[in-house]
Amino acid sequence: MLLAIDIGNTNIVLGVFDGVRLTHSWRLATLRERTADEIGLMVTQLFERSGIDLASISGVALSSVVPPLTHPMEEMAERTFGRTPLTVDPAHAGMPVRYAPITDVGADRIVNAVAAWDRYGQAHALPLIVVDFGTATTFDAISGDGEYLGGVICPGIGISADALFQRAARLPRVEVRKPSRIIGQTTVTAMQAGLFFGYVAMVDGIARRMRGELARGDEAVVIATGGMADVIAGDSETIQHVDADLTLNGLRLIWERS
Question: How far, in Å, CA of 27 to CA of 6, rounded?
């Protein structure tokens, strides 16, 4: 079995694959101060509670955008499972990358692109746009030839909500959710309307502009993943698929092809 690990700025997501089937997954808070021993203890407890034998793991695939946690996670894999992890390098992930310098592109973005191309693009050589709702919201373009072309990086919806609270003295911290109407009649509902509907409009606007630049862009398939994907997709006019496990499946594919 394979243990796939994606280290993001807000969460660490772990998934166990038995072949192509994702059997278990967990989400942990990203704390940059965690040591290999602390991570190993948490992972061991998760495996014990789920009835998974540590010895059943035959490989570990890792992507990380948090450098202080990359080495501790690699060390954890070696100590806990006796396996040297495959840490994704965008330059050697099995997809041509048209981004300069290539080392600047986040590993998770390439992992998402690999998974999206395999599931939604390759069979019919369709261009793709992947929207990942994380700490930042990223838009990634994949050509109909299976090349990673680059994309767009925006503040995440959570960052936007926090900025309103922190920088405007009279605005409260609000839960990001869809209000019943666009015209808010309280400060909270007005802020929620701005965050939610503003974000939906941003996603659709950027996706349309990206389609305009892509070859055969009118055929481009738009896939969303990440924490707010389900919420935003319900009101989006451009998102066609929501794939919650896109990153984990991308790690599986890269590991299988290595």
Answer: 10
Q: Provide the strand spans (E) within 86-231.
A: 86-87, 128-133, 136-142, 148-155, 221-226
CB-based burial label for 87 (10 Å; 0-12, 13-18, 19+): middle
Kindly report the CATH number that applies to the domain delimited by 90-252.
Answer: 3.30.420.40
Are 3 and 58 a contacting pair, CB within 8 Å?
A: no
Length of the chain equals 258
pLDDT 10s digits, 171-214 = 888 988 899 999 999 999 999 999 999 999 999 999 999 999 99
Residue with tokens 């936007």: 160
Point out the catalytic residue in the list 108, 118, 132, 140: 108
Domain boundaries, the chain: 2-87, 90-252
Query: Is domain 2-87 classified as CATH 3.30.420.40?
Result: yes
Domains 2-87 and 90-252 share a fold: yes
Taking the C-alpha atoms of residue 88 and residue 109, their distance in angstroms, rounded to an integer, is 11
**35 Cα distance to chain centroid:** 23
- What letter represents residue 186's amino acid? T
Element (H, E) at 59: strand 59-64
Q: Find the largest Cα–Cα distance for the chain.
A: 58
Q: How far apart are CA 137 and CA 146, in angstroms?
A: 22
pLDDT band for position 170 (50/70/90)? confident
The C-alpha angle 220, 98, 105, rounded to 5 degrees, equals 95
Has 108 been annotated as catalytic? Answer: yes
CB 126 within 8 A of CB 178: no
